[in-house]
Design brief:
- With 256 residues, the protein is α+β, with helices and mostly antiparallel strands.
- The protein is 26% helix and 26% strand.
- The chain contains six helices and 14 strands.
- The protein has helices spanning 3-13, 17-33, 68-78, 148-157, 168-177, 208-214; strands at 47-49, 55-58, 63-64, 84-87, 93-101, 113-116, 127-130, 135-146, 161-162, 184-189, 198-199, 228-231, 238-241, 247-253.
- Strands 7, 8, 9, 10, 11, 12, 13 and 14 form an eight-stranded mixed β-sheet that branches. Strands 1, 2, 3, 4, 5 and 6 form a six-stranded antiparallel β-sheet that branches.
- Helix 1 (3-13) runs antiparallel to helix 2 (17-33) and helix 1 (3-13) packs antiparallel against helix 3.
- The longest helix is centred in the first third of the chain and has 17 residues, at 17-33.
- It is elongated, with a radius of gyration of 22 Å.
- It holds the Pfam family PAN_1.
- Keywords: Membrane, Transmembrane, Transmembrane helix.
- This is C-type lectin domain-containing protein.
- It comes from Lymnaea stagnalis.
- Residues 134-252 form the C-type lectin domain.
Length: 256
């Protein structure tokens, strides 16, 4: 029996979304038992969220479906990359999603509420970048350029943080991630305490040795209230800058 047949059986006999959600998780486990998902156990749980600074990556323009549970089941049955869906309770529009992206708009009123399954695969923009000595799971955004506050918020919307170059190896890895022509924010600022530049993930202060190695000579100098840090074009060296300046940015997630 196919997953689609099993899901249809569930949908015919359950109308409550929470109950059908539990049963669908069981169906997915049974489906994986049958070898249809690589022979491993799978458990899918969608939760309603309201993203503010990123949006769902739409898989198509959607279809009319009778219920949220039916929408969820058909999304999973039709798309191997289904990690969310939008559902309008009035119009019954179901819009499938492969996850969250900083390049996508938030759900519209017409699309309805967004239901999301959070996993390593739920953020399609992220890629693992390597050099000879380190690696990082990152997403790079260059257009449109945004200020530091919005860059930070976009990363957090995707359960990540601005890139932390807290070793020389990760600092050099920036060259493998970004377009050499662009200004790029990283996760380092002294917004909380003047002249104490801390990393976005740990809030630990950058060491004196790294500051000397990574910054332009004489920087950071806090000229005119420069509390944020970016990489300038055509060079891996860092400089402090006003947080209101527009730039590209790198988001970083924990390696899965």
């Amino acid at each position: 029996m196919s997953f689609k047949t099993l899901a249809a059986y569930v949908l015919k006999r359950t109308v409550d979304f929470k109950k059908s959600q539990i049963i669908l998780r069981g169906v997915l486990i049974l489906y994986s038992w049958m070898g249809a998902i690589g022979g491993t156990f799978e458990s899918i749980k969608f939760e309603k969220i309201t993203p503010q600074h990123c949006g769902p990556q739409r898989l198509n323009s959607g279809w009319v479906d009778k219920s949220r549970s039916s929408c969820a089941a058909r999304c999973l049955a039709r798309f191997g990359t289904c990690h969310g869906f939008m559902y309008n309770e009035v119009t019954k529009l179901c819009t499938p999603s492969s996850g969250l992206s900083a390049e996508q708009s938030t759900p519209s009123k017409a699309e309805g509420d967004f239901y999301f399954s959070d996993s390593c695969q739920s953020y399609p923009d992220f890629r693992t970048k390597y050099n000879q000595s380190t690696q990082a799971h990152v997403a790079y955004y260059s257009s449109p350029p945004v200020n530091y506050t919005n860059a930070k918020a976009a990363c957090e919307c995707m359960n990540s943080h601005l890139y932390v170059a807290n070793t020389l190896e990760k600092w050099w890895l920036i060259n493998a991630i970004v377009n050499i022509d662009h200004h790029v924010f990283i996760g380092l600022d002294d917004m909380a305490q003047e002249n104490k530049f801390v990393w976005a993930d740990s809030h630990q202060e950058i060491s004196s040795a790294l500051k000397i190695a990574m910054f332009y000579l004489g920087q950071p100098d806090d000229s005119g209230g420069q509390d944020c840090v970016w990489k300038k074009p055509h060079n891996v060296l860092l400089d402090d800058v006003k947080c209101s300046e527009p730039a590209g940015y790198i988001c970083e997630k924990t390696l899965c």
